[in-house]
Amino acid sequence: MRVAFKGKNPGLIITVDHVAAPHARPYEGLLARAGHGNTFRHPFFGDTDVWYAQPFRPFVWPAVLATNQDVARDVDAAVDEALAAAGFH
After folding, report:
1. What is the largest CA-CA distance in the chain?
2. Measured between alpha carbons, how far is 12 from 4 in angstroms, rounded to an integer?
3. Which strand (E) or helix (H) includes residue 49?
4. Phi, psi angles (nearest 5°) of residue 25
């Protein structure tokens, strides 16, 4: 996670390392195309002649929803601490 204070979209940014978690984007549903329901497709054990529809198994977004108030409080505290350390409070 990182906090951005400038640019087009200031706020908290959550990223997932595609090397450490290569299935994160499809499981979360980030690669979904409109009209394809709640699944993503992939070759069945590498066989590109047989494709399998795998259901999404989101893990990041449910965690965000469950902890968003705590995260907002912690980000506010970190920003206040940084401002105080810089002499702005």
Report:
1. 63
2. 6
3. strand 47-55
4. -60, -50
3-state SS assignment for residue 18: coil
69: amino acid identity, one letter: Q
pLDDT tens-digit series, residues 39-50: 888 898 989 999
Ranges of each domain in the chain? 2-85
Q: What is the pLDDT of residues 15-30, one digit of tens each?
A: 888 899 888 888 888 7
Beta bridge partners of residue 42, listed in sequence order? 52
The residue type at 23: H
Cβ burial 55-76 (10 Å sphere, 16+ → b, else e) = ebeeebeeeeeeeeeeeeeeee
Query: Would you say 32 and 40 are in contact if contact means Cβ atoms under 8 Å apart?
Result: yes
CA distance 71 to 76: 8
**Full-model pTM:** 0.52
Chain centroid to CA 60: 5
